[in-house]
Amino acid sequence: MQTPNIHLLTTGGTIAMKRDPASGRVLPALDADALLATVPALADSATISVHPFSNQPSAYMGPPQWYALYNKLQTLLADTNVNGVVISHGTDTLEETAFFLACCLATDKPVVLTGAQRHASEADSDGPRNLLQAVNVAASPMARGRGVLVVINQHIFSARDVQKIHTEQLAGFAAGEAGCLGSIAQQAVYFYQPPQPHKTLPLTHADFPRVDIVAMYGGADGALIDAAVAAGAKGLVIQALGAGNTNTEQYRAIASAIKAGVCVAVSSRVQQGRVGPVYGYQGGGQTLQELGCLMAADLSPQKARIALILGLHNGLSAPAIQALFY
Ligand SMILES: NC(=O)C[C@H](N)C(=O)O
What we know:
This protein is α/β, with parallel strands linked by helices. It has 2 domains: 5-191, Rossmann fold, CATH 3.40.50; 211-324, Rossmann fold, CATH 3.40.50.40. It has 10 helices and 16 strands. The protein has helices at 32-37, 42-45, 63-78, 94-104, 127-138, 223-230, 248-259, 285-291, 301-313, 318-324, and strands at 5-10, 17-19, 26-28, 47-52, 84-88, 111-114, 148-152, 155-158, 163-164, 173-174, 182-185, 188-191, 211-215, 235-240, 263-268, 294-295. The strands form 4 sheets. It has an 8-stranded mixed beta sheet. Helix 4 (94-104) runs parallel beside helix 9 (301-313) and helix 6 packs parallel to helix 7. The mean pLDDT is 97. It binds asparagine (ASN). Asparagine is lined by residues 13-14, 57-58, 90-92, 115-117.
């Protein structure tokens, strides 16, 4: 059997960081070749070509970097000899990059993101194992047609549902009620469900509208919502309470944001479950929906923001953006 051809696109993150002995700081250290060299066993699984994209913390990723990554992936995936792509990435915003790409990359080939919770100078860093497992998934014919995947700690997640749930533990990612799509054991890849069809949105240009996330909390007022509108936000995601609730002060600020033409989506600070028009007191989800707010289903605020950015980027109507959240 022919060895699969996998492209490894390196972006940085803890997987490529080490503690600098002089300063004691954990900093980017491994370039793409050095990262590849941390896993000699990769050569048994695939023929790998490395593509350095960046070497930075994932906190430095955002729409311009996601767009550049998307363009790079379009080129790599067009190569008919390539079986799949692995992207090494910091874990802090890994789910955002994965979701952005999942929303717009139209490909049947596996695109798999991975990272590490422990940096490369820790004796028990999880980076090499995660990288090996990500390559095994990208090389697996069973991973085709499943969109963008995330592989961490022997689990395979969909980009839509995965979330970082622990700051340090190796089992730092989960997918809430949706659960994981599959797992890896002794290098063998298992999926628990058949691939689900999903739609993608084209990226037509490099401009992405400003969309801010504003949190609701006990005693919050509308000042940050007003500030986001004044800063030029075209969209806002409210990180609401519970099933999508705010208070009177935020309700009033949201009403004036909508009047000013800003598209407002409601998400929740609670990690699992959906938002909806449940409560009818002023600021409750029902009253926010009556104002014209969209309900971001079970998407986290950071993913609802990406869906909103892409919906506005494509000039979609409010109902079409609402449909994107599902
Ligand atoms: N574990 C990690 O990769 C965290 C790191 N700060 C990053 O996201 O770049």
